[in-house]
Amino acid sequence: MRRIPGFGNRGSAAVLPCSCCLSGCEQCRYLSNITYPITVNPATAHRSGIYFAQQFGFANAPDVGYTGLQPRENSGGAERLSARFSSFVAGTTTSDPLCAEGADGGPGVTCAVDFDAVYGHRYDTKVERTGGDTWTGTAKDTVSGKETHLGAWTLPAGSGNPRGSQGGFVEYCSAIPSCAEMPRSDVVFGGPTSTDAGGQTGTTRANYEYSDCVGESGYHAENEETGTHVTRGSVS
Asked: Measured between alpha carbons, how far is 90 from 67 in angstroms, rounded to an integer?
């Protein structure tokens, strides 16, 4: 059994090198919110062990945050997703009941929540300043309008606003028997947006597959408008 990295950094299968084309623009220094659209398509295996994530950095912070969605097993006849909202910045604090100290075994804060979902619906995962250096995560079903609170944490003072570009990833974070038995992932990462500076729209583009199972997992990525559609694996 081995852990199959997915897609990006921190041990991942294909890289999203730039999740926002706002890099270098004057307005980026004033961003107070970024929304990352993510659609987990029905062909995705309804099981834990896959993470569809977007990273975001801050102007004066040495590390990044993540937000994204993870498939889960169906429960009570309902499809389920799990959302994450994390900071890897040392000194991040939280009092939110959905959150706990630590991120991937290091400093920071991780927030997590499971919820009933519909695969194929687009979820807008939003990172928003809600006061001072406090940031809140939400995930909104753009079909039903239902919004799920993902948690909130506070960065060290002076960490600044989000940067205009970062990377994303698809990560296989559970052991699988072989490359031929990799669970199916089928996801669309939409171009990020912000309501700041009169409204900003970015792009998400796939880059490459790497680490275990390169060329053996049916990986495919295709750009669609401002986003990218990524598939990998075959076991439902």
From this structure: 17
Residues 104 and 135: their CA atoms lie apart, in Å, by 19
DSSP 62-126: SSEEEEEEEEEEEETTEEEEEEEEEE-STT-B---TTEEEEETTEEEEEEEEEEEE-TTSEEEEE
Q: With contact defined as beta carbons under 8 Å apart, do 11 and 211 qualify?
A: yes
Gyration radius (Cα) of the chain, Å: 17
Question: Model's pTM, two decimal places?
Answer: 0.89
Rounded Cα distance between 214 and 125, Å, is 29
Q: Low-confidence residues of the chain, pLDDT below 50?
A: 1-26
How does pLDDT run across 67-89, given as a tens digit for each residue? 999 999 999 999 999 999 999 99
Angle formed at CA 120 by CA 228 and CA 222, multiple of 5 degrees = 20
8 A C-beta contact, residue 31 and residue 201 = no
- The pLDDT, as a whole number, for residue 30 is 65
- CA–CA separation, 9 vs 4, rounded Å? 13
Structure tokens at 186: 């089928």
φ, ψ for residue 136 (rounded to 5)?
-120, 140
Task: Determine the pLDDT at residue 156.
Answer: 97
- Cα distances (angstroms) measured from residue 139 to each of 106, 114, 116, 181: 25, 11, 12, 30
Contact 204, 191 (CB under 8 A): yes
Kindly give the pairing relationship between strand 64-75 and strand 50-57.
Answer: antiparallel
Sheet holding 99-103, edge to edge: 15-16, 168-172, 50-57, 64-75, 78-87, 106-117, 99-103
